[in-house]
Design a protein that fits this description.
Structural class: alpha/beta
Distance between the termini: 10 Å
Shape: globular
Largest sheet: 6 strands, parallel
Helix content: 40-55%
Order of helices and strands: EHHHHHEHEHEHEHEH
Strand content: 5-15%
Radius of gyration: 17 Å
Number of helices: 10
Bound molecules: 1,6-di-O-phosphono-beta-D-glucopyranose, magnesium ion
């Protein structure tokens, strides 16, 4: 049975990966760290702290300095979020959210991002969500299952009755650990372990999933 859909944000509802990339690149250039789009691909769906660790590639920094770098990157990212508007919703996702609302299927967000709420607001989607789980909701981020279990708890639905939509390998891993079925968005090398897989959001077929 499906009683709730639990959505990842970046790569599923909107593509903030490009804005994350620009913000990390600016910070890395200022600091002389090696960073490019290929390294950025490894940051998909992982937390801010884990992202910095990947960029540092084993280089050790004090906690104070690491926090300063993450805060600086986040300030660049937050400034870029001002450009977001409903036109940045990924193809097919607003109609999918409306369809789920019409069918009385609960809709929750489960994002690693601490900026998830303002992003959903800027996209004009706040009213379509019954609950929002974000980077503030839990301390262990994906691939731990915590944010998905938190979102399911918020809408009062058992994990086995939830379907997750995810674009990241770590996110699909987390959903499986939570005991949820999962729709993977992207290539099989990344999300081939999902229950269903579609190349991109526009291809997501609800009737196929609910059949
Ligand atoms: P923030 P998701 C993730 O969002 C991004 O994919 C990842 O690149 C980012 O590092 C993470 O959020 C934390 O974001 O710095 O805004 O707290 O895919 O889980 O919606
Ligand atoms: Mg994602």
């Amino acid at each position: 049975m499906c009683k709730a859909f639990v959505f990842d944000l970046d790569g599923v509802i909107t593509d903030t990966a490009e804005l994350h990339y620009q913000a990390w690149q600016r910070m890395a250039d200022e600091e002389g760290f090696v960073f490019d789009r290929e390294i950025n691909e490894q940051l998909r769906g992982v937390s801010r702290q884990a992202s910095l660790n990947i960029i540092l590639a084993g280089h050790k920094l004090s906690e104070t300095r690491a926090n300063e770098l993450m805060e600086r990157k986040n300030s660049y990212y937050v400034a870029l979020l001002n450009t977001l508007s409903p036109k940045d919703i990924l193809p097919g996702m607003e109609s999918l959210l409306l369809e789920l609302n019409a069918r009385n299927i609960k809709v929750a967000l489960a994002s690693a991002s601490k900026n998830a709420r303002p992003i959903i607001h800027r996209l004009g989607l706040t009213a379509l969500f019954d609950a929002i789980g974000d980077g503030w909701s839990v301390s262990r981020s994906k691939p731990a299952p915590d944010v998905f279990l938190h979102a399911a708890g918020q809408v009062g639905v058992n994990a086995s009755d939830c379907i997750v939509v995810e674009d990241a390998q770590a996110g699909v891993d987390a959903a499986i650990l939570a005991g949820m079925r999962v729709v993977g968005i992207g290539p099989s090398e990344r999300v081939g372990h999902a229950t269903w897989r579609f190349d991109h959001t526009a291809a997501l077929d609800l009737s196929n999933i609910l059949a």
